[in-house]
Amino acid sequence: MAHPEILPDLFFVQRGYLNGNHFVYRSDRPVLIDTAYLAHFDRTRQSIADLGADLARTALIVNTHTHCDHIGGNRRIQELSGCDIALHRIGRHFIEARDDWSTWWRYYDQEAEFFQCTHSLEDGEPLAIGPHEFRVIHTPGHAADGIVLYHPREKLLISADALWERDMPVITLRVEGSRALFDCLDSLEKIRCLDVRLVCPGHGRPFEDMPEAVSRWKKRIRGYLERRESLGDDQLKRIIVYTLLMRPGREQATFFDHLMNTVWFPETCAFFFNGEHRRKFDEVMAGLIHRRIVTCTDGKLFTPVAA
User: Fold this and answer.
1) Mean pLDDT of the residues in the chain
2) Residue 306: what pLDDT?
3) Sequence-ordered list of residues with C-beta below 8 angstroms from that of 247, at least 6 positions apart, any chain
4) Which residues of the chain have a pLDDT value below 70?
5) Whole domain around residue 118: which residue ranges?
6) Contacts with 68 (C-beta within 8 Å, 6 or more apart), sequence order
7) Which residue among 85, 139, 175, 186 is least enclosed by CB atoms within 10 Å?
8) Same domain, 67 and 197
9) Is 307 inside a domain boundary?
10) Residue 144 to residue 182: CA distance in whole angstroms
11) CA angle 202, 191, 201 (to 5 degrees)
């Protein structure tokens, strides 16, 4: 797949559904924005090499937040290159405190590795990616430490998980708190006020119609506020797919038991669905299999989603 050059020597690397997109500034000392899943690091490394960037000479990684699909390659790249890593100050605290709950890793039983954060980012500060000067904008809601990067002159927004084109990320009230949906609305209002010609999201393809995407997401959030069960359904579907994306080949016969041994699945069913664990599992799995988002081969579960 060709990777579009969104600014001179700054490339957008689109990954598969639910894996994190990332960015490469190609130079003698490359700069990376996000590093996708740990489980798919070989593909991440290859995509960076295909652009002519030497991973061992990486100067800086900027992370838009600390969820596992955005920081997966950090530790390995840092061990290889000795690079700096920059996060919003909240995310830096999570990493330095070894807080694998606030990063979602422990809550969702995700695979990720701690690393050394060397720089804190603040709302409104400038951030140089090579010669390209972006502005950091703090956008909590999906993640307490979430940021987007805005290039005012080029009207370019690297929106991470704060804004996708036709969908939206998981909102985890148990970790982010009961105000998370309201934080999302506030963050969307920050984005709405920007003059943007092109949005490069954390998932999915680049797009131009930012006002329509913002309007679509606000409508979805209002729906969650009016009917909270829809938020629970969304959480169950997405995290089951994430689980199979990170660890394909789970035994179908024991998958329910596996989920019941996590923190997130029993809590989600208890919070949204009065503890009807088995009913919700059967209902969600039937829907995912019917839509072929999940497949079963020789008694093992997979998602055909690309990495």
Assistant:
1) 96
2) 66
3) 39, 111
4) 1, 306-307
5) 5-225
6) 37, 38, 103, 104, 105, 108, 110, 111, 112, 246
7) 186
8) yes
9) no
10) 12
11) 15
